[in-house]
Amino acid sequence: MKGADHNRARNRLRLGIVLFVLALAVPSLLLVHKAYDQMKWESFRLQQLIAEELADRINDALAAMVRAEDARSIDDYTFLVSSGDPANPYTRRSPLAELPSGDTIPGLIGWFEVAADGDFSSPMVPAPGISPTDYGVDAAELALRQARAQQIRGILVGNSLVERDSRDRRAKLASTPAEAPEPAVAGRAAQALGAVADREILMAPAPREAAEALQTQAEPERMNRLSQAAFERLARKEAAPSLKSETAARSNRTDALRLDEELALRGKRREAATLEDKSARAEADEAPLFAPAAPSLQQGGLPAEEAQERAPVQLFENAVEPFEVGLLDSGHLLLFRTVWRQGTRIIQGALIEQGPFLAALIGKPLATTVLAHTTHLIVAYRGEVLTSFRAQPDGRYPLASTPLNSGPPPLSGALLYRARMQEPFGGLELIYSVSRLPTPPGAAVIGWMAAALALVLIAGGWLMYRLGLGQLALVRQQQDFVSAVSHELKTPLTSIRMYAEMLRAGFATEERKATYYRFIHEESERLSRLITNVLQLARIGRDALVLEPRAIAIGELAAMVRERVASQVERAGFVLETTCDIDAEILVDPDAFVQIIINLVDNALKFAAKAETRRIEIRCEVLDANRLRLGVRDFGPGIPKDQRRRIFDLFYRGSDAKAKAISGTGIGLALVQRLTGAMGGRVEVAEQNPGVEIRVDMPMTRVPHRLPRQGR
């Protein structure tokens, strides 16, 4: 096989193996990907179920808190309340008169009440005329209570829920002298006040004195209505004015979150697939991804929406509307209700710090679940992101003590679950997103199987490639062998034919005839050795080699070898030295053993042809009581270390043989190793300086009476 043909065959081999490996790898990778994707979906679904359960827990906690607040009496929002025992009436401190500890409502700043006239009060501070010390409140505690009440009032004033200094302004207006208006004017003023709602008073034409009196009487009513307008806006769930820029507002909206909904939509499609008819599936596809929670039932068993829209039916002196929740511009949460007492409107509620409230009711339950390490829980109110909770990076903590960070939400990730709380916290929304899913229980097995499969494919492809290269090399060596054998056969045949023609033509004299006959004999011997090697190799290749080992003296074998190679060594200009005068017998097949030594001598003559010392040594030595060593040494350049293990490979020829164009077939030493092994012997290469020695160890049947001194 020529070099170009060999390269093309190697490229075709590479391409075939690559295509074969790909044909196995692609379906396998698809199966692995499908299995891992299924496990990923199952892990996602498990996380989703945990998120649903957590959302239900949070919703139940909020509902329980609202029920507890809804159960409070109207009178609880004052410092003192009646005992309620007609037989033993007395007054005591209200349950809301205590300083907030956060046990009832996390993050609670305090309770408050806004009267119909706009006056602010807190059950923490005694009303004027009540002695604090009579109810166990000393001066220091009273100062703390007043500071807390002032803090609540300041927050409400800052969010335009309570008029600043409304009580002083009403007192000033009340002290201003004014003439009584005429009856007609007073009637028109009363009619106008009944129609005013957060608008300027429309007054009919009247004398100047009547107008001043009407304005004096209308100012307190206008202030009262303005102070409660914000509560009405919160109850109607209208957006309050905000000082944030439009860009900042957009970036803090849930619409700005870019969450991947693929897995969530897959779960929705799987649920829709279980429906019985196509119309139900179509309705499921058109429905929102996650439906809000079912409306909660308020007083009287009415849904929250209906309870908001319906005004209270005042069949009694007092009426209480359901609680509402509002988010102030300052970030505080307001839980309040409207109370109608004898036809006047009163606002009662609680002011809550947003951060501690969300951390206790949402962050703390999250920290006790496995979601804490993998999930971002985004808390939003009416589309505006409040905060998000997530585990600290690389945190390895027990579930009960997982520290959480709160901060801005991630703008990307996979949407896990989305839930809206029940009224009155209907504006509060929980958005679960995951940046990474926990490793499924069987993912490691699939990973190991995929790795093992990849290793098998890669190793198998590499082994096939190496085997293919070996086969290509073998084919090339066989072709080189055929070429070399053809050359080796042609050379002696040409010499034999030339000398035979000269003898037949009578061109040779009597003196030259003997020389020609000797040449013909030597070339025929050379031809016979080559044919014998080829035949022996063929028998070994098909396991048809038949040997007949017998005990024979080593001296007799040495004489046979010398007789066969003496003329060849002499014609090559070498000297043959044989030192095998040992009285011992070895168990070998004589023909095979002689062929081994002839091949070694022939190999030494070829590679030491340019050596300064033109000598071939054949020597024998006894290794032990059972083995005898015979070595053939030359004084040539030797064999490189990296080629010593390969010289016994079939058809192998070293780089020196190719570079120096040394004749040979590459089967001589291979045949030496195979014949030696077939007779129970062993062959090895020993470095000499100069040259190399090839040693053949054979089993010995008769030990000499006195062992000679062991050689080198």
Automatic annotation (TrEMBL):
GO MF terms, alphabetically ordered: phosphorelay sensor kinase activity
Record field: compositional bias (Basic and acidic residues): 270-284
Stretch list, region Disordered: 270-294
Entry keyword set: Kinase, Membrane, Phosphoprotein, Transferase, Transmembrane, Transmembrane helix, Two-component regulatory system
InterPro entries linked: HATPase_C_sf, HATPase_dom, His_kinase_dom, HisK_dim/P_dom, HisK_dim/P_sf, Sensor_HK_Regulatory, Sig_transdc_His_kin-like_C
Spans through the membrane: 445-465
The EC number(s) this enzyme carries: 2.7.13.3
Domain Histidine kinase: 484-702
Gene3D superfamilies (alphabetical): 1.10.287.130, Histidine kinase-like ATPase, C-terminal domain
Enzyme class: transferase
Protein origin, superkingdom: Bacteria
Record field: catalytic activity: ATP + protein L-histidine = ADP + protein N-phospho-L-histidine
Name of this chain's protein: histidine kinase
Organism of origin: Thiorhodococcus mannitoliphagus
